[in-house]
Each structure stands twice: as C-alpha cells, then as structure tokens.
Amino acid sequence: xxxxxxxxxxxxxxxxxxxxxxxxxxxxxxxxxxxxxxxxxxxxxxxxxxxxxxxxxxxxxxxxxxxxxxxxxxxxxxxxxxxxxxxxxxxxxxxxxxxxxxxxxxxxxxxxxxxxxxxxxxxxxxxxxxxxxxxxxxxxxxxxxxxxxxxxxxxxxxxxxxxxxxxxxxxxxxxxxxxxxxxxxxxxxxxxxxxxxxxxxxxxxxxxxxxxxxxxxxxxxxxxxxxxxxxxxxxxxxxxxxxxxxxxxxxxxxxxxxxxxxxxxxxxxxxxxxxxxxxxxxxxxxxxxxxxxxxxxxxxxxxxxxxxxxxxxxxxxxxxxxxxxxxxxxxxxxxxxxxxxxxxxxxxxxxxxxxxxxxxxxxxxxxxxxxxxxxxxxxxxxxxxxxxxxxxxxxxxxxxxxxxxxxxxxxxxxxxxxxxxxxxxxxxxxxxxxxxxxxxxxxxxxxxxxxxxxxxxxxxxxxxxxxxxxxxxxxxxxxxxxxxxxxxxxxxxxxxxxxxxxxxxxxxxxxxxxxxxxxxxxxxxxxxxxxxxxxxxxxxxxxxxxxxxxxxxxxxxxxxxxxxxxxxxxxxxxxxxxxxxxxxxxxxxxxxxxxxxxxxxxxxxxxxxxxxxxxxxxxxxxxxxxxxxxxxxxxxxxxxxxxxxxxxxxxxxxxxxxxxxxxxxxxxxxxxxxxxxxxxxxxxxxxxxxxxxxxxxxxxxxxxxxxxxxxxxxxxxxxxxxxxxxxxxxxxxxxxxxxxxxxxxxxxxxxxxxxxxxxxxxxxxxxxxxxxxxxxxxxxxxxxxxxxxxxxxxxxxxxxxxxxxxxxxxxxxxxxxxxxxxxxxxxxxxxxxxxxxxxxxxxxxxxxxxxxxxxxxxxxxxxxxxxxxxxxxxxxxxxxxxxxxxxxxxxxxxxxxxxxxxxxxxxxxxxxxxxxxxxxxxxxxxxxxxxxxxxxxxxxxxxxxxxxxxxxxxxxxxxxxxxxxxxxxxxxxxxx
Length: 976
Prior knowledge:
Radius of gyration: 31 Å
Distance between the termini: 24 Å
Shape: elongated
Low-confidence stretches: 1-33
Oligomer: single chain
Mean pLDDT: 90
Helix content: 10-25%
Number of helices: 15
C-alpha cells in the first residue's frame, strides 16, 4: 500500500514538478547518487540544485497523447511552439513538435537525450522534433526552466529539456492506443513494443524497442464553430465581430470590371453554385478588397481549404546495449532511427481582384474565350460592355481566382534521422577518492525531402490565360509560349486538362543536417569539509554542426508560385570546456540544516563567432529540515545557427500585418499616433488622405511580401538569468510539499527580424524620427504607382527583414506548486483508496520585447501573439483503489490580449477571456500482465476563444487552445 501511494504521488505530477524533488517518503527510497538535470555533479535526488519538472513514463502514457510534445504542453512553463495545430500551415515543419520554455523560442530551449545533444530535425528552421523519439522507451522527461548554458552550452538560454531514456528492461512489452474526436475525425493510432534482457552472466544488457503512430487531419470546414468563421468589421470603431466575409477569389473566376470606392466599383463572378452563370456582385463584394459584409452566395469562403490539425505518420526504433568489461568499466552504445512524414494543407494558387501579390492576372478584352458561344461567355460580354469596356487588348479586368484545377498547394515532408552514440563509463579510486568518468562519441544525421505540390509556373499561367484568335484558331498570344507548347486556358468555361498540365508544376527541396560530438567528463568528491564533501565535475566537448538545404532549380528560380528559397548551407564547430564545484559550508548547526554554494563556468571557442564565456552561481540554504531556499544567478549564450548565419535572402509572406496608414487603422489609433501618422504616412504616400486610404494588405486582403535572409556577421545572444525560490515540506503535515520560485531573464543581442507590425508602427509610422532619415522606414518599400507589386498607389510591395542582433527581452514571474496526498485507511480508518492533489501555476507578469536599441519595451506578457499568458496553471485530483485509478485534470489559461496591433479601445471584444479545459483518465490493472486505460480529453468540448485572432487555434499563440474538440482514447499495455 505504501508503494501504491508513492506511485500515486509521483504520478499526480501530470503538469510536472516545479519543485525539486518530487515528493516521496524518504524512508522508503534507496538514496543513490546520480546526475540530475541542471548539473553534472553527482548527488542524491533530494538535493537537486534547481527547480526540476519531471514527467514520468506512466504520466506520458496515461495522458492519451501520441506525441511527447503534446504531453509536455501540460507543463505550465512550456509554451506552444510548433505542434499538430499550427504545423500544417508551414512549408517544411509539417509533422514536427517542438519544446519551448517560457515562450523564448524552441531555438533557445536545449533538448537533450540522456544529457547529450540531439541532431536538429530540419535545415530550414533548426530545432529538435520530439516526434522522432519513441515515447514507450522514455523513462522520464526532466525540464529545467532557467539559463543552463554554463552546464550544457549554447541554446540553453530558456532552459533544458532532458529526455531520460530507459536503459534496462526485463521481458517483453506491447502497447497500443487509438483515439477519435467526437466528430469522427482526427483519428490517432500508436502501437509499440519493448524488449529487454541480460546475457553473458548479466554482463551484457540489451534493450530494443520502437513504435509507429499516425495522426489524421481535422479540416476547418468540418467544425460548425470554425466555418465559415468570423472576422472584424473594420468599418467601425471599435471593431466588432461579424460573420466571415466571402472571398472574391473564386474557384472559377471573378472579374474586376471597374475599381473605385464602395458603390462605384463593379465586378462579376462565375457563380460557384452554377458555373454556367455570370453573376453581378453586390456593392459589398464588388470592391477589389471586399467589404466586411460581403456575403454573395456566388462566392466562397476561402478558409474551406484549411486544416485545424495536421496529418502525420512516424516510425521510430531504438536499441541500447551496455557491456560490463570489468567491475569498474562499462562500454555502451545507443542507436536511434526515426522516419517522420508530415503533411501540410494550403489553398490552391490564387490571384486577387486587386491585381497584386504573387500572380497578378489581367483578363483582356480581346481574349478569345470572351467571344465564346457559351451562356457564361455571352453574359460576361454583356457585363463587359455595360462597364464601358471594349473588346481590345488595352481593355482589361483583374481576375480573382483560386486555381482549383491544380489542387491545393499541399506539402509532404519526409524526414529520416539516425543517431549513433558509443562510449565508455566507469569509476576508479585514487588519493582515497572515488572518481566517476565517461566519454562518448556521437554522430547524428537528418535527411529529408519536401514535395510542394501544385505550384504552377507563373509565366505559363499568364501565357495560357492570355488566349487570342489567330487564323480562326484559339492560341496563346505569346509566340514563344506557343512554340513551347502553350495550351490556351479558358477562364470563362474552365480549362481542359492539357492546359492544366502545361501550367502546373511541383517543387522539391532536399536537406541534410549533421552533428558530430566527442565529449568526456569526470566527477569526484575532492576532499571533505566539516559540512560534507566538495563535489567537482569537469569536462570538455568538441562539436561540429553541418547543414545543407537546396530547392530544385525551377522553384529556386522564382518561376513557380512557391517562395524562391534557393540553397542554404554552412557549418561551424566549437571546442568547449566546463567546470563545476559544490562547496558545502554548513550542516546540522543552528539555523543551517544545510548551506552550500555551487559555481559553474564554461568556455567555448566557435569557428563562427569566436570565444564565449558563461558562469552560474547557486546557493542553497535549509535553515531547518522543513524548508529549503535556493537562489542562482548566471549567464547564458546562444550561438547563431546556420540558417541565421548563412540563409540566402528570399521571398516570404505575412498575413497578419496591418498598415498603420490604412484608414481603418488610422481611425482606431490614439491621438499621438494619429499626429505622427499624418506626417509619416504623408511622407510615404503621395496625396495621402487618412480618411480614405485603403492599403493593399491587412485583414481580408492579400498577404504582405517580405524579403528575409541570414547574416554572417551575427554575434551571440547573451542572457543574465536569476532564480530565487523556496521548497517547504513540513514534517507535521506528512505528504505535503509546496514550492515558490521567482524567475527572471534579461536577454540581449537577440537574433531576430524586427516584428513586422512593430516595424510598421513603433519604429516607422508612429516614430517621431524624420521619415526620410529613418532606417526602419527605408525597409518598407511602397509602390508610388501601384504597378510594381503594390497593387494600389502607395501600396507596400515588400518589407525587408534580415536577421540582426537587435532585440532585448525581459521576462519575470513566479512558478508555484503544491502537492498533497493521503491514504484514506490511515486518515479515516477505512480504506476508500489513496488520493493525491496537485496544483501548478505560473504567473509571468512580464515578457517585454525591445525591438531595437533605445526603443521602448513592448509588453508581450499576456498576449496571444507570443503564446505567453500572464497566468497559466493546472490542477489534478487522482484516486487509486485496488486495481483502478482515476485522474481529473483541469488546465487553465488566463485571459489574454488578442492582438498587439490595436489598442484595447479599437476592438470589441479585445480579450480572450479565461479558458478552462478538463480531462478525465481511467486506468485499470486487469492482472500483472495487462493494464487497460482510457479517457476523454477536453471533456466539456471547449473551443478556442471566439475571436478572429484566435478562434481557429492554428497560429503559434492560439494553438495553446484545443481546436479538435472532445476526444476519446483507449489503450492497453501487455507485459510478459
């Protein structure tokens, strides 16, 4: 029974233990020395030097998640990053899941396996995909929030996620799990096996295991609350929420016959309900950018193509072996192989009625298909003449169209990762001291291919749709295109398959990432002080990182609809050395049950950025047995990765940017902002009128073009980190444990592009600096005539955003945890089972970004933009009785600001409101060999906050909220 409660208490930490260590009865535990995440000095588990969150294998399995990253999102210190809800809309990260501590980014969260690095999973955006790791072979996950670079090196600014794998197992285990949403989609399946044995008189230990899993997509059109969706009414201030407007990019075609303000613009569309008909659009749908209340049923909702959750499949295999050469020396090897396939869902290639964006497409008056005999052609000719147009080449209309004929621009990314580790470990005695040592060599390699489907050739679409009559035959106008096999495309009645095939194309990218590591460590207790032994650890490491990413020639040329990225490659290496020492100063004296100091330092020499230095000082003080204080201060660095250093400049797009000069945004601005914009916008846009100017980008409009790329002159990011905490375990209340920790990060020289909305507002149009001499305004390229990519006079053709050491970040807050458990038989003299209660919470009241030196800090704590709620918590109640266990878990995210692009008075509503989500899980041990489990995630079928900025749950920030709905799962474990 005692073991049952101990397991229960440890298992109740579904959100992880921000206090270290997790509670167990001291008298029931064999205290052994081991390495705890956050330090390399060997110690017993009750003297962890920093707050450590622990997620056990049983918690991972019971969670009902098939992905480690999804299970980790229950930890309050973990923020949403790349996951199944937002990776479907990425070109290369589909199917990946990454860890992000405190919203500082996956690139600042170091992910380790058994204290060793893991090769990056992607060359386009370096980071570790947790989906490559077989969850059934994980023993536990330890997370340390706080700078750990002095111990582990670069990337550990935000903290460390250390995945501790199983090293021993006796017997054979099978595990299977499946799940389905209430709507019958989003199915998940996983099956895995694990086998372990000892051979050769127990000197050889062997462990083999693996698993395969699959996740099916959830489409936006299959959720009533998500489709057709909602938007802001930007005609009003504050902007209320209204039903989503329809798109004037039609799966057939719309023709912008005349432009102008509301009431004067004229447009017609091929009716999506009956493509043989031409329909004149209402005033609200006739402007090049549709009005907020555009609801003509001849048009469609553009989000019908999009996914709420991605599709992925993976298979992963691991084998571990160690052999006892002597009583003091062991040799080991660890092999991991994984194959992960991810799928992304995108709208088909499209043109806009504005005539801007990637594919501006005019329909000319002498187009041969306009003179066709079909009913649609006849009706279009009548509308053409009624709009005052002529059947000549010089008379044209912009076409708004989704090219459904090609299909969606979906992507499939296939990645294979191989990780090989071999080394030795042991101990010896010298100078009457025991020394523990280890060395290892490690090689990791990721190879991948991304196929981007239906990325049509831009020139070929323009050539094929520009069809004319020559000698009574319909041909492409361009003579060279005709010689190249151009097939005319009928925009009025639909193309034939030959025209589609001639214009369509696919694009592929290949990538390879390599990591080589050789490292050695030695630890010992050098000598005794009155308060205990002086523990030390020293070591060194050599590491080389290599990365190659290449797009096919046609895609890289810019000829296709896909972003031209080209080739990016590079490498660097680093030699590092570190040292740690633990000094016990006092023990078992009045007001000092224990007092110790730890010092850690690390030196590194990078081929890319030169020398870096890091340190950490940590103090632990337990005035009495029941209370322990801990404090630390340290520095951390992150070396720029290969993409940040060597990525070529390439075109990208942003769909959330807002133009401060737009009339709706101007109307919603403060008095100071309006005063600044009257000057800066007038300097940027000829004849600027803040009451009438409508930008070419923003809500419901085309995406904004960005030019982005790397910078080989980058330096390292640097951070100062602080922690002050207390752990209370009162002897007079058995099984109660409480902790409270203050954390603080000061990050400088952050490698980043300036956030596009910050550039547009704070750094340019709301700045008091002279427009002509403001370097940030120079990054915003406006098109004076509208003919060079801007779409309208004064529209933005592109914004230049390159990686720079420009930003600073300040993060502050508190982590709190309380845990209590009891046996009903002991408390009530009657056995109702064992109970465990736990609450974990994070109050992060500051997450402030200074985009550029000298600028004011922008508060991003409590914002959806950065996935950083001010309040985040989890509470769980667990009950165990005989063979049955039941757990109820409630997740909480405090109300957040929906966007940083507007003032609170500009949007109604502006805040997300408090969010609660509940899970119910049941476990039944049928016998010693079979354990059954099942549960319901999101028991009350909660949806993301019903705001346009959050309701789909598919951006980084809004993916903190579940968008799948109520989800049922069952699983079973069989042991032999």
